[in-house]
Amino acid sequence: MSNPANQKIFLITGSSKGIGRFIAEYYAKLDYFVIGCSRSKSDFNHPNYLHFEIDISNESDVMGMFREIKTRYKRIDVLINNAAINPAIISAAILPSVTIENVFKTNVFATMVFCREAVKLMLRNKSGRIINFGSMATRHEVPGEALYTATKSAIIGYTRVLAKEVARSNITVNILAPSAIKTALSAKINQEALQEVLSRNAIHEYGNFEDVSNAVDFLIKDESHSITGQIIYLGGA
Fold first, then answer.
1. Does the annotation count 148 as an active-site position?
2. Are 20 and 12 in contact (CB under 8 A)?
């Protein structure tokens, strides 16, 4: 069994599949202690991994998880806000209010709550790294993705302000915006439309999971203490 007292502790949202699952496995196998969460169970079993089955858009669920983390581990060193939802391509003129509310709750509200609670723990140690996931959608302004793009644009503004608020405590807050990667989420998107958007990047092909872990490796290094409030677009968006 691992000993989190001697390990850097990660908290990763949306860790049961896709990018979140990959980076959870990646860091657990590198001997970091990883706490993951998602709406569904995870079949990833590792001494360095602990999974919470919660709805991140439900503040009560999130606060319950943070209380347990605070009691058991007393700190978080790295927060990665990966979880997000993206509804089907739909015109802004016909977006149902319930869809708008649900997407903002998951993509924006949950990210802000996770940052708020993680910062409280990071301030104790005057150290921490927060990485919020963005999207190339904020650069390419794809018709039919007004809602998703709006949520990711909100995260940009929030991240840049938060970075300035916590900089003096050696806490960095950055945005990592991956190119499209072949996941269950990207498979639900119209593939012709997705290829057209990829053609706007400097690199027209799909990205891969290792692109993401490489960028995270860079951002969490002690030597990256002066890199904050920045957006890294993978694929050259």
1. yes
2. yes
Each residue's pLDDT tens digit, 11-20: 999 999 999 9
Low-confidence ranges of the chain (pLDDT < 70): 1, 184-190
Nearest alpha carbon to residue 158 among 122, 110, 112: 112
Pure H helices in the chain: 18-29, 59-72, 97-104, 110-125, 137-140, 146-166, 184-187, 191-198, 209-220
**pLDDT at position 193, please?**
74
Q: Specify the pLDDT at position 185.
A: 66
Largest CA distance in the chain: 53
Q: Give the pairing of strands 128-133 and 171-177.
A: parallel
Pull the structure tokens for residue 162.
């938060």
- What pLDDT shows up at residue 196? 87
The residue from 26, 73, 148, 233 that is catalytic is 148
How far is 207 from 124, CA to CA, in rounded Å?
37
